[in-house]
From TrEMBL:
Protein name, as recorded: Proline iminopeptidase
Species in which this protein is naturally found: Achromobacter animicus
PANTHER family (alphabetical): ALPHA_BETA-HYDROLASES SUPERFAMILY PROTEIN, HYDROLASE
Matches recorded under Gene3D superfamilies: alpha/beta hydrolase
Record's keyword annotation contains Hydrolase: yes
Keyword list, A-Z: Aminopeptidase, Hydrolase, Protease
E.C. number: 3.4.11.5
Gene Ontology MF terms: aminopeptidase activity
Domain named AB hydrolase-1: residues: 37-160
Database matches in Pfam families: Abhydrolase_1
InterPro entries noted in UniProt: AB_hydrolase_1, AB_hydrolase_fold
Length: 265
């Protein structure tokens, strides 16, 4: 893997400052020949730090700039004032991600999202069809599947145990309780039962790759199948893999993405 440099910046958004980290291969093709930057969108409890070393390795493997940001209310970004609406996945494309895109002047990009971030990547590809050159989803949910909801119910019980919230405080500080509520209460709300990304999937115009583990506790492989059906994605199912392929099977994920991406954009 080539040497990778990183830079941290804060960008203004409608509700506050967003924390952004950019990884750039130090020795690679000139910027105009690298391919479009890859923007990572994190999961429901995630943040930039919880991607761990994956962004650096992705930048090294692909030779592209990789960008990750903390959504408002998460990680090092400012707190979110209020509660999330049932449309929060689609709204992220035109609010938080839009602010990052404009601040960093990303005329073109590849969207790569994990879990609910995969849904946000889909929404971003649909919202900016002329700019999104490639879409990669990992363990994405595209509707409120019972398997997903049951996984969240079990997580709710686990986080109710003494000391469990401290795991989130390490990454989100005093915002941790809000982060947990934003995940559990939103997804388990009766209003969320009919949520689906089918309209956004039908609007995706760029090449797409749908990664999913066959033992994903937060969503069956039917999500990858639906992304393939409605957005024309190439589905890749990792055997004996759970909800976080980039952590459980990093070599396979990096190889799959770096092999596919040059053909996409």
């Amino acid at each position: 893997m080539s040497s990778v440099e990183f830079q941290d910046v804060f960008v203004p958004a409608a509700g506050g400052q967003l924390f952004v980290r950019r990884w750039t291969p130090a020795a690679s093709a000139p910027s105009g020949e690298r391919g479009v930057p890859i923007v990572l969108m994190h999961d429901s409890l995630g943040c930039v730090e919880l991607w761990r070393d994956f962004p650096e390795r992705l930048a090294g493997a692909t030779g592209r700039e990789v960008i990750a940001y903390d959504r408002l209310g998460f990680g090092r970004s400012d707190p979110y004032k209020g509660t999330l609406g049932v449309d929060f996945v689609v709204r992220e494309a035109i609010e938080g991600f839009r602010a990052v895109r404009e601040a960093l002047e990303l005329e073109e990009f590849a969207a790569f999202g994990h879990s609910v971030g995969g849904g946000m990547a889909i929404a971003s590809a649909a919202a900016y069809p002329q700019s999104c050159r490639a879409l990669i989803t990992e363990s994405a949910q595209v509707y409120a599947e019972e398997r997903t909801l049951e996984g969240i119910r079990q997580a709710r019980e686990s986080f109710a145990q003494p000391g469990q919230l401290d795991r989130l405080k390490k990454y989100h500080g005093e915002k941790a309780a809000w982060v947990l509520s934003a995940w559990i209460d939103t997804w388990l709300s009766p209003d969320f039962a009919d949520w689906t990304l089918d309209p956004q999937l039908a609007q995706v115009k760029c090449p797409a790759l749908a990664l999913h583990g066959d033992n994903d506790e937060y969503g069956s492989t039917v999500h990858a199948e639906r992304i393939a059906q409605l957005a024309g994605a190439r589905p890749v199912i990792f055997e004996n893999c759970g909800h976080v392929p980039h952590r459980e099977m990093p070599e396979q994920v990096l190889a799959t993405v770096s092999d596919w991406l040059p053909r996409a954009g």
